[in-house]
Amino acid sequence: NAGVMQNPRHLVRRRGQEARLRCSPMKGHSHVYWYRQLPEEGLKFMVYLQKENIIDESGMPKERFSAEFPKEGPSILRIQQVVRGDSAAYFCASSPETGLTEAFFGQGTRLTVV
Amino acid sequence: QKEVEQDPGPLSVPEGAIVSLNCTYSNSAFQYFMWYRQYSRKGPELLMYTYSSGNKEDGRFTAQVDKSSKYISLFIRDSQPSDSATYLCAMRLQAGGFKTIFGAGTRLFVKA
């Protein structure tokens, strides 16, 4: 049973480009959460999605950031026109359909904006 | 004031020592409390999960929650070099499907 899969593991983008981060939840999980971790800081909640629905996006910056979790395929976190301050590790977590409190994290995508 | 405060360390202890890690929080409505372990360049791994006040033990790990003091602790007995990692406390208002608030993490080094 594969865990939460994130790709790519490392992503380098130039300022102004778009970054797309993908997350495949564990089998049987339909709840996905995205977090951002800056160096020496804890994880900051960004968005919570269920299949085809955004449930809570209170942690998402208002501009340039968007997330989706389509009926088929992985969840995507999209950052348009990246800036140096977007450089961070982005983690995805998933939990089962029943919404249990335990969530499993992926290995993260480390985004570097140059 | 941050919602969750956690001393970043680093905390360095000899192998076999008892380790005490702590967090304080400001929101008395938090109900669910977790501890995660994160190795360098890896994702967080859930260690302990506790609902409301009380103690929970799992092997060498014990989690304590004192809601009256808004204080949570993680104790590691007989610490091993493999316990060297960053430990993140986390908490949530409600069960399932709601955002989790994390502490900044405490870096722990266990020396052989």
Give a description of the structure:
Chain A has no helices and eleven strands. Chain A has 114 residues and is an all-beta fold. In chain A, strands 2, 4, 5, 6, 9, 10 and 11 form a seven-stranded mixed beta sheet that branches. The model of chain A has no long low-confidence stretch (mean pLDDT 91). In chain B, the strands form two sheets. In chain B, strands 2, 4, 5, 9, 10 and 11 form a six-stranded mixed beta sheet that branches. Chain B has a five-stranded antiparallel beta sheet with strand order 1-3-8-7-6, with no helix packed on it. In chain B, strand 6 and strand 7 form a beta hairpin.
Task: Please name the defining characteristics of this protein.
heterodimer; A: 114 residues; mainly beta; seven-stranded mixed beta sheet; 52% strand; B: mainly beta; five-stranded antiparallel beta sheet; 11 strands
Summarize the helices and strands and which ones pair or pack.
The complex is a heterodimer of chains A (114) and B (112).
Chain A: E1 5-7, E2 10-13, E3 19-24, E4 29-37, E5 43-50, E6 53-56, E7 65-68, E8 75-79, E9 88-96, E10 104-105, E11 109-113
Chain B: E1 4-5, E2 11-14, E3 19-25, E4 32-38, E5 45-51, E6 54-58, E7 61-66, E8 71-76, E9 85-92, E10 101-102, E11 106-111
Parallel strand pairs in B: 2-11
Antiparallel strand pairs in B: 1-3, 3-8, 4-5, 4-9, 6-7, 7-8, 9-10, 9-11
